[in-house]
Design brief:
Jelly Rolls, iron, disordered N terminus, binds protoporphyrin IX containing FE, about 35% helix, 23 strands, globular, 5-stranded antiparallel sheet, 6-stranded antiparallel sheet, alpha+beta
Length: about 900
């Protein structure tokens, strides 16, 4: 009923508007506008492509914003999606201009008949983009993911698929209510105050000299780059490919004019970098609109505001390895043999190990001569992988290389196990295992350190609740544009390179960050990926502290190697938030059920810092206007995490939705067999490193920083990933056991009775205990009689006697303790000591046990902060 009323109301409204304009636009006017818009957009695209190629080929006039634009350039399917949206948007703008529709309340679409609207949608290509696909004809839908994730959700087939709009958790707030960014007209107030220039905010709040960076005592630089790696599985917001304004023909990077798609970043007077040249701008290109949004929303019945596209799938499906676009996915595969492999570099290798293939374009990565000052240096093109940003830094490129190798390792091992499998099956099964790996590692090892154990176990995430087709997994706009950019403040100013002993590499020293952007040649000619991977796990992450937020490598020298105006990542993040119409800081605090600070005193409490609160208010005038990325990264960390409460909430909700809304999530029934799931749980980044590099010793948990010597393990001591559950039909290819052999010599004398039998020693391993519940130590050191159950964490006595139990646990918490319980009753509270952010909980006792008695450990709080090397042991002293 309510819906009918609504439709009537809309109908009435359109009627009234139509009367205001007296008539609807003629069909010929509409068709002319479509054809003119297409021509103007096509010209702008063609010009932009030719101009970009000219700049790359001649390497003249290239500048850092070209690089960002090229990286964010829509390719293949995304390009068609963006082009269609641009056609549609511009058609309506032409109609608006030509027919003098300047009333804010009146849109061109109000004056176009439903039939003409449909024609426009069809001619621009937008209709095809929203048509529902038919999932019935998709092969292997229950077994494997489609490349684009279309049909992951059978009821809403496009949910979570590539090239769909980001989800809005809160309505957008554009300056004109529909389309224009906040700050487009700098003299218009928002909530009663003018918005400060983003570069001014960056200078005043974020600026940090490289040498003032504080390192994180707990985490390695790998946790930062793993975050970027994960982001590149989940979000990519394309720009429009046009480098000049559709309206005026102005080149975005040559002018400070705000004209679609140019939204340049203005420089404040007396800027530390630009000085007197503050009339210059840092070029900025608006993110491309999605079809049927912004001025065109009416066409598809969508909300009438501009939306941005995510060209990647929303799922943790390792799209950065395989591509989220059919064409790219095909290009990445080695189809010359039927072996299920990914393509590798044909010209170069890394001490015999595979390197990524090169991009077919001669491109931006050819900077070796310029950076090394050696004009004779051999240049190489960029690497190509499932995500276009693969070359952004050599840490990220090394991750890509390692994961491509792991796919190929798996495909080869599966081929040995199942020689009857086709290349397609080998490829899809290896890809599926890789998907499982990353779902396990992200939830088990990564997220806990970012959003902290309390939130990970709280109502926002908690244990896996099972698949729900009504949960929309799409990535939210605020996640991509603000919250998951938190780690821009955890990047070190160096990309470290270490030798076999985890010491600074003498031959290939660490490089300043701005000298490692888009430099695949460093992996080809400078010792490969091993020194870089060691640098990631052997050195600390940067710590985001309120007075040392973003160092100069990212604020003053982003992509500087191309000369001219280097970019400022902090300013880009805030300008992007305004471009996307993100609501301000306080709206998001309210969304997450957090307090809404209004005064200096209240903000000082939230930030736990009066000086910072004062600076923020001085810049913004009101807390409501603080750019959400800035407000989020300025908050103090939640317990055990590396983000404040606001971003913890947004990140937690995102990961919960992309898990619960994923029909092919690894823990769902019928995705993997139980034995396969068991295997997947033992995966670790350490094992993957050991299997795919020349590194022989690794930290057991590579996200947790340990000085060399403690917590490192030899590769041969890490169990290999068990692929046997992937043997088809459980066939035993080793054949039948032979006849019994001759009797061997007598063994050593046995001990008498049960005394020697009842014993166990276990380590926590990569497990994720729940506070208050028995802690299941998964890694068995000794458990000869299986009396300790590694699934439940409970030791059960079968031999009455007197037993001794000992434990030693380390917790990444400020507080925490561990209890030893006998038949659920507390027997012993651990002895705890605290040192630099860790709690050590130890204990030991002697107990008399009867048959069936149980003993286990539990942690009342801080349980999920336990480190992998925590251990528990018990053995019988004598029988009674
Ligand atoms: C390691 C060096 C890194 C560099 C140089 C870098 C640089 C950039 C740049 C230039 C953008 C586009 C800015 C814009 O125009 O809006 C961006 C976007 C982004 N970055 Fe980073 N980033 C790095 C690491 C990270 C890390 C560690 C994370 C997260 C853990 C991250 C998360 C993101 C996200 C979510 C986006 C938005 C992506 C999109 O939807 O297109 N980045 N980054």
């Amino acid at each position: 009923m309510a819906r009918v009323l609504c439709v009537l109301a809309v109908g009435l409204c359109v009627c009234v508007l139509a009367q205001v304009a007296a008539e609807t636009l003629s069909r010929s006017a509409v068709l002319r506008a479509v054809s003119d818009a297409k021509k103007i957009i096509d010209d702008a695209y063609t010009y932009s492509r030719a101009e970009t190629l000219r700049r790359v080929r001649t390497r003249k006039d290239l500048n850092p914003s070209d690089l960002l634009r090229l990286v964010k350039q829509p390719a293949r399917e995304t390009r068609s999606a963006v082009r269609a949206a641009d056609y549609l948007e511009y058609t309506l703008q032409l109609l608006q201009d030509r027919h003098h529709i300047h009333k804010r309340s009146l849109n061109a679409t109000d004056l176009i008949s439903a039939e003409d609207l449909e024609t426009i949608a069809r001619l621009t290509g937008c209709a095809a983009r929203v048509r529902q696909p038919n999932c019935k004809t998709t092969p292997h839908l229950n077994q494997y993911r489609t490349t684009t994730s279309v049909c992951n959700n059978r009821k809403f087939p496009r949910r979570g698929s590539s090239n769909t709009p980001f989800l809005r958790l809160l309505p957008a707030e554009y300056q004109d209510g529909v389309n224009l960014p906040q700050g487009w007209d700098p003299m218009l107030q928002r909530n009663g105050a003018l918005l400060p220039l983003v570069r001014l905010v960056s200078n005043r709040i974020l600026s940090t000299a490289n040498e003032d960076v504080v390192s994180d005592n707990l985490y390695t630089h790998l946790i930062t780059i793993f975050g970027q790696w994960t982001d590149h599985d989940l979000t990519f917001t394309p720009h429009s490919p046009s480098i000049r304004s559709f309206n005026s023909g102005t080149n975005c990077d040559e002018s400070c004019l705000r004209t679609e798609p140019c939204f340049p970043i203005r420089i404040p007077p007396n800027d530390t970098r630009f000085g007197r040249n503050s009339d210059e701008c840092i070029p900025f290109f608006r993110s491309a609109p999605a079809c049927g949004t912004g001025n065109t929303g009416h066409i598809f019945g969508a909300a009438n505001v501009r939306e941005q596209l995510n060209s990647l799938t929303a799922f943790l499906d390792v799209g950065q390895v395989y591509g989220a676009d059919e064409g790219l996915a095909r290009d990445l595969r080695d189809l010359t043999t039927d072996s299920g492999l990914l393509r590798v570099n044909e010209g170069f290798n890394d001490s015999g190990r595979e390197l990524l293939p090169f991009s077919p374009m001669k491109d931006m990565c050819a900077s070796r001569g310029r950076i090394t000052n050696d004009t004779n240096a051999e240049e190489v093109p960029c690497f190509i992988a499932g995500d276009e940003r693969v070359d952004e830094n050599i840490g990220l490129s090394s991750m890509h290389t390692m994961m491509m190798r792991e796919h190929n390792r798996l495909a080869r091992a599966l081929a040995k196990l199942n020689p009857q499998w086709s290349g397609e099956t080998l490829f899809q099964e290896a890809r599926k295992i890789m998907g499982g790996y990353f779902q396990v590692i992200t939830f088990r090892d990564y997220l806990r350190h970012i959003i902290g154990p309390d939130i990970l176990n709280g109502p926002e995430i908690g244990p896996f609740p099972g698949y729900d087709e009504n949960v929309d997994p799409s990535i939210s706009n605020v996640f991509a544009t603000a919250a998951f950019r938190f780690a821009h403040l955890a990047i070190q100013p160096f990309m470290f390179r270490l030798d076999e002993n985890y010491q600074d590499h003498q031959k290939w020293p660490s490089v300043l960050f701005h000298r490692n952007f888009f430099t695949p040649w460093r992996l080809v000619f400078e010792g490969g990926i091993d020194p870089v991977i060691r640098g990631l796990v052997g050195r600390q992450a940067k710590l985001n502290v309120q007075d040392h937020m973003m160092h100069d490598e990212l604020r003053e020298r982003l992509f500087e190697f191309l000369g001219h105006v280097a970019l400022d990542l902090a300013a880009l993040n805030m300008q992007r938030g305004r471009d996307h119409g993100l609501p301000g800081y306080n709206s998001w605090r309210r969304f997450c059920g957090l307090s809404k600070p209004r005064t200096l005193e209240e903000l000082a409490v939230v930030m736990n810092n009066t000086e910072l609160a004062r600076q923020l208010l001085e810049l913004y005038g009101t807390v409501d206007n603080i750019d959400v990325w800035l407000g989020g990264v300025a908050e103090p960390f939640v317990n055990g995490g590396r983000v404040g409460p606001l971003f913890a909430c947004i990140i937690a909700r995102q990961f919960q939705r992309l898990r619960q809304g994923d029909r092919l999530w690894w823990e769902n029934d019928d995705v993997f067999t139980e034995a396969q799931r068991e295997s997947l749980q033992t995966t670790s980044l350490s094992r993957i490193m050991c299997d795919n590099t020349g590194i022989t010793e690794v930290p057991e948990n590579p996200f947790e920083f340990r000085p060399r010597g403690a917590g490192y393990t030899r590769c041969e001591d890490i169990p290999a990933f068990d692929l046997s559950p992937w043997r088809a039909n459980g066939e035993d290819r080793q054949g039948h056991p032979g006849p019994p052999g001759p009797q061997g010599p007598a063994g050593p004398p046995g001990s008498n009775g049960a005394a020697a039998r009842a014993a166990f020693a276990v380590r926590l391993g990569y497990n994720f205990p729940h506070p208050g519940k028995p802690i299941a130590f998964k890694n068995v050191i000794y458990n000869g009689q299986d009396l300790y159950n590694t699934k439940t964490g409970v030791f059960t006595c079968t031999q009455p006697g007197v037993y001794q139990f000992d434990f030693h646990c380390t917790l990444y918490q400020n507080v925490g303790n561990v209890d030893l319980r006998h038949n659920d009753k507390l027997v012993l509270h651990s002895f705890t000591t605290q040192q630099s952010g860790y709690v050590t909980a130890t204990g030991g006792t002697i107990l008399q046990l009867a048959t069936g008695d149980t003993v286990y450990l539990s942690a009342n709080y801080g349980g999920n902060g336990l480190t992998a090397d925590s251990f528990f042991s018990g053995h019988i002293l004598f029988s009674v």
